[in-house]
Amino acid sequence: IGALLENRRTGSYVRVHASAIVNAAGPWAGEIAKLAGADIHMTHDRGVMVAMNVRWVNTIINRLATPSDGDILVPVGTVCVIGTTSVVVDRPDDLDIPAEEITQMLDAGEIMIPDFRKARALRAWAGVRPLYDPPQKRAGEAEGGLGADGRFITRSFRALSHADVGAAGMLSIVGGKLTTYRQMAEKISDEVCAYLGVQAKCRTAETLLPKPTWFGGKGRKLHTLTQRLYQLEHAPRHNDLICECEIVTRSQLETAIKASGEGVSLDDLRRDLRLGMGPCQAGFCGYRAAGILNQVTHAPPAQSVAALRDFIEERFRGNRPLLWGHQLRQALLDELIYRRALGVPALQPEPGTAAN
Fold first, then answer.
1. Per-residue DSSP letter, 230
2. CATH code for position 85
3. Tens-digit pLDDT profile for residues 227-251
4. Are residues 34 and 179 in the same domain?
5. Is there a single domain that holds both residue 70 and residue 118?
6. Residue 73: CB partners within 8 Å, gap ≥ 6?
7. Could you tell me the pTM of the whole model?
8. R_g of the chain computed on alpha carbons
9. Residues facing 13 on adjacent strands
10. Residue at 351 is within a domain
11. Cα–Cα distance measured from residue 253 to residue 301, given in angstroms and rounded to the nearest whole number
12. Range of the domain at 160
């Protein structure tokens, strides 16, 4: 059994073969299985979340009620995230964010936190839950369908072999959620070992996750909310402030770029440092960070411009469902900076879609 791999940077292809292949593609697991002639009954359940610019609480707030839309508020860094909705969709890439779902989130937040709506909504995003939904329904179980609530489907997981359709050596791990991922890894590893005749104990439950290679010192990823400002104010020498919203300095960016190795993107730096995740959504730090990325990596100018374009387009995508009040003013200013002043080219539309 094997697979055909494409290098998205060079356009080249390579074919690989293995004694066993694991399909752990999340929402895409069903589509991957179809390539081998297998059929996995997946339900794609979309959920929407909204980040607010105020850290209202310092602990998770969860309504003790039947699970519904917008019943949990989670503090994350300098913001709070409210979520989520549950709508069954027909595609694993259906990440649409309807206006009514944003309204549901804000209304639910107002119930938990007075004046919740007065805060500034920074960004909205959606994800698709990969729910395993076998055709053998339990007696009396609710019927689903597109647009239905997917909360009635269990979040359990299943390891599947596809030998019955002639794809011996291909196994899939489906369902589950973030909190069960390591248990899922153990289960599918045991299944692979059994198939290959390997006698070995899975050690994922005993092995600590590795620390980041640049963990520790001034560049560490983990920090208290006040630490970055304290370090900036008490630094022995001036350090350029690149992201004013999240207090990210030039030295932090340079350290992260060098530690990340070849192919690092601005979105990688966002995950490491919260670059561009404040109220301006990369309006002022995006082009600064792109310049530093170019200086450190010595990438061709066209590649750096493309990296900036991709980063800004992704930031804009999360803003579009929230264009009112201050966020609308900020988005217009960001557009003036990037489209008019800097002339950053727009992304090419996907085939069959209209340009933005």
1. H
2. 3.30.9
3. 888 888 887 777 899 999 999 999 9
4. yes
5. yes
6. 56, 57, 60, 61, 62, 80, 81, 82, 109, 112, 113
7. 0.82
8. 23
9. 6
10. no
11. 19
12. 2-196
